[in-house]
Amino acid sequence: MNVRDSELAAGLLEKEGYRLTGNPAEADLVLVNTCTVREKAEQKAHSFIGRVGKFKAKRPGLILGVMGCLAQQWGREFFKRSPYIDFVCGTHALDRIPDMAREVRAGKKHPADTAFRDYPASLAVHSPPHPGEIASYVNIMQGCDNFCAYCIVPYVRGRERSRPSDDIIDEVDRLAEAGVKEVTLLGQNVNSYGTGLEEDINFPLLLKRLGAVQGIERIRFTTSHPKDISEALMDAFLEIDSLCGYLHLPFQAGSNRVLKRMNRGYTAEEYLGKINGLRSRVPSLGLSTDIIVGFPGESGEDFQKTIDLIEKVRFDNAFSFKYSDRPGTAAAGYDGKVDEIEKSRRLTYLQKLQAGYTLEKNKALEGTVQEVLVEGPSKGGFPNVTGRTRGNKVVNFQGDAALFGKTVLVKITHGFAHSLRGEMVQGGDVESCS
Ligand code: SF4
Fold first, then answer.
1. Measuring from each residue's beta carbon to the nearest atom of ligand 1, which residues come in under 6 Å?
2. Counting atoms of ligand 1 from 1, which one is nearest the CA of 145?
3. Which of 23, 171, 181, 354 has the least C-beta neighbours within 10 A?
């Protein structure tokens, strides 16, 4: 979602005459998009802003703006901590970035906008795809009403707001016309899409409408909340051809006691029930998840239940983190804080276990033929190109620029820790099409 907000901000500034540059020395404006979901992300943002501040001392005309969740949380306090910041743009005020840059150029000191609006600007702003863009993000909602005990999102992104479906379809139509083949629908909790809208719509119905958009070959979405995965959504994987068989479904902890303290609204058994429901429909479904280790009060026994769940599900990938207090959240006031060394020990153990499963899953694809949407040159450049399977695995293989934007069949020859290697085949049977 932050990546999409950065793209939207860049699009707005391009309309103002700015151009993106990879060289900070020639920048007239540096806009830092910040995250505060974990303490480490916040520290990284402060440290980067400090580095730009030093650079700005040598380039007084340079404008430095901050946006995103940390900007929302800190507001005008940011100017006290980092006086070299010129403007602060909160999470609902994305459309005001060009105005604020103009105000700073005109001599106004420290404009800031962190007001919550009825309808956040990131849902109203469209930005055209860049030439040759094959996969795009589309915001369908913003904010969250779930208030998980550890999470700062409801406080910095505001309450849940959905975007009218006609507006989403219109944007996706225009992306398709511009040659985009894949869209990823974004929201803090896409499964509850539609709540509060006047029209009769929910997430599976939105997917059906999007499935009918000509030219869009692949639809993905993130992030899903397990409690809101409905039977209708599970069926959508069977009914909508363009909906890719891949799901990111955070489980966070395997212990029901911890899940309750997290205010997650489901048990481990219910989570496993949803996984079974999904896999009974799409056996090859690609699955990834988020996990927090060392939540306040998590005992060794609780942690073992997290490990047990990983072993039962065998995810394709997992994003795992050590718990850190986020000021203002319920969990920041919880007792039973887990020692940092113990948190690190649990995280290392878990990541090693998951790395084994990820490799196993990738190796299991060796010999299969996968549909791959080619997105561009591989990191090492030509003669290799890169793309993703419907199950969201990165595949590198020999090819040229004529393949960009095309879906081709690739026989997987090697499964590695983070990607697959393959060779293009003509008309081979697709054995696994996750
Ligand atoms: S559902 Fe996600 S975004 Fe919402 S409070 Fe929970 S963790 Fe945060």
1. 144, 146-148, 151, 153-154, 188-189, 225
2. 4
3. 23
CATH fold of 121-364 reads pyruvate-formate lyase- activating enzyme (3.80.30)
* Ligand 1 centroid distance, CA of 151 (Å): 6
3-state SS, 372-408, equals EEEEEECCCCCCEEEEECCCCCEEEEECCHHHCCCEE
In angstroms, the CA 362 to CA 412 distance is 9
Q: Does domain 369-425 have CATH number 2.40.50.140?
A: yes
Look at residue 235 and give its three-state secondary structure: helix
The best mutation among 69, 141, 145, 146 to test binding of ligand 1, ranked by most ligand atoms within 8 Å of the C-beta, falls on 146
When comparing pLDDT for 380 and 405, which is higher? 405
Q: Which atom of ligand 1 is nearest to the CA of 223?
A: 2
Distance in Å, CA 147 to ligand 1 centroid? 6
Dist. CA 146 → ligand 1 center (Å): 6
Sheet architecture: strand order including 112-113: 29-34, 63-68, 87-89, 112-113
What 8-state DSSP symbol labels residue 252?
Answer: B
pLDDT in the model for residue 417? 97
Q: Does domain 2-113 have CATH number 3.40.309.10?
A: no
The Cα 208–Cα 232 span in angstroms is 11
Q: How far is CA 340 from CA 294, 322, 343, 345, 346, in A?
A: 8, 8, 5, 9, 10
Atom of ligand 1 nearest to the CA of 154: 5
Q: Which amino acid residue places its CA nearest to atom 8 of ligand 1?
A: 151
What does the alpha-carbon distance between residue 428 and residue 434 come to, in Å, rounded to a whole number?
A: 16
pLDDT for 179-231, tens place per residue? 999 999 999 999 999 999 999 999 999 999 999 999 999 999 999 999 999 99
Six token digits for residue 242: 């363009």
| Domain residue limits, the chain | 2-113, 121-364, 369-425
- Provide φ and ψ at 387, rounded to 5°: -160, -175
Residue 296 and residue 323 in contact, taking contact as beta carbons nearer than 8 Å: yes
CA of 351 to the centre of ligand 1 (A): 22
Q: Which atom of ligand 1 is nearest to 189's Cα?
A: 1
Instruction: Please determine, for residue 36, whether its predicted confidence score (pLDDT) is greater than 90.
Output: no
